[in-house]
From TrEMBL:
CDD domains xref list: TST_Repeat_1, TST_Repeat_2
Cross-referenced PROSITE patterns: RHODANESE_3
Signal peptide: 1-18
Record-annotated Rhodanese domain positions: 32-139, 172-285
Pfam families: Rhodanese (PF00581)
Listed PANTHER family: THIOSULFATE SULFURTRANSFERASE
Entry annotated with the keyword Signal: yes
Domain of life the protein comes from: Bacteria
Keywords: Repeat, Signal
Name of this chain's protein: Rhodanese family protein
Length: 290
């Protein structure tokens, strides 16, 4: 008589812990909330005003470890320590969000994917969509109990990160697409600045193009995004794509966008133009969009 209830319990558990898509809806999070670890990457002021129940706050700056004057990822050991202090373990089902169309949350998504954390997703639309749905928020601060997030024996850092030498090689390889996720003005460059413009051959794809700000800050439809990508010559989901901006902050937003569309070979140039511009031997292109 107890077999059926046990079976249903296991079935429910499997449905919750099945591999998550890149983005999950506010409805899904509300339904499974008690089984999730929620992480809010909004500003501290915004978090104190309201946040999702039981969500913990993470400062975007905690994801960065300055190195030689550059704002870079701290690497697997560093992130494992940060996650341990936040009470996160590799087995946790983690949902990330912010109030900016997942601009900041996407960076942590990338970091977790480098650690091969399987059960992680972004709340589509973040706290904006959550509030529009009428779901409850709170000002109550959660209690954090440190945990153990061991550094994985192997990570996906090399597969998901591009260094300067690899970007130099990509410039001379037409099979690799470079996407500049900054503003049009930054892409074109300013005659008032000595080191300005974009990496040679890079196409402009501002990070904001990924977000439908008139539809609860959710990601735009797959069809819209595919059309945008076609306009910059990207149609092959097996093509290697390297994303950059100034510090890989804005570029990180396009990482989950592309992964959600099925693009397999997507990497973030962590150094971005902050590193590129320091090396005066490296070219920058100004002027019209190519």
């Amino acid at each position: 008589m107890r077999v059926l209830p046990l079976f249903l319990c296991l079935l429910f558990s499997a449905s919750v812990w099945a591999k998550l898509p890149v983005f999950v809806s506010a409805d899904w999070v509300h339904q499974h909330q008690e089984n999730l670890k929620l992480i809010d990457l909004s500003s501290r002021d915004q978090f104190q005003k309201f946040h999702l129940p039981n969500a913990i706050w993470v400062n975007y700056a905690w994801l960065i470890k300055p190195q030689n004057g550059l704002q870079l990822s701290g690497g697997p050991d560093y992130m494992a320590k940060v996650l341990s202090q936040l009470g996160i373990t590799p087995k946790d089902q983690v949902i990330l969000y912010d109030n900016q169309g997942n601009l900041d949350a996407s960076r942590l998504y990338w970091e977790l994917k480098k650690l091969n954390h399987e059960n992680v997703a972004l709340l589509d639309g973040g706290s904006v969509q959550w509030v529009l749905k009428g779901y409850p928020v709170t000002q109550k601060m959660p209690k954090i109990k440190p945990a153990n997030y061991p550094t994985p024996s192997s990570s996906s850092t090399d597969q998901l990160t591009a260094n300067k030498q690899e970007v130099i090689a990509a410039i001379h390889n037409k099979q690799v697409a470079l996407l500049d996720t900054r503003t049009k003005e930054e892409y074109l460059g300013s005659p008032k600045e000595k080191r300005t413009g974009h990496l040679p051959g890079a196409q402009l794809f501002p990070w904001q193009a990924a977000v439908d700000f008139r539809n609860g800050y959710q990601q735009r439809s797959a069809q819209q995004l595919k059309t945008f990508l076609e306009q910059v010559g990207i149609t092959d989901k097996n093509q290697e794509i390297i994303l950059y901006c100034n510090t890989a902050h804005r570029a990180a937003r396009l990482f989950p966008m592309l992964k959600s569309l099925g693009f397999e070979q997507v990497r973030l140039y962590d150094g971005s133009t902050q590193e590129w511009s320091q090396d005066k031997s490296l070219p920058l292109t100004t002027g019209a969009i190519q």
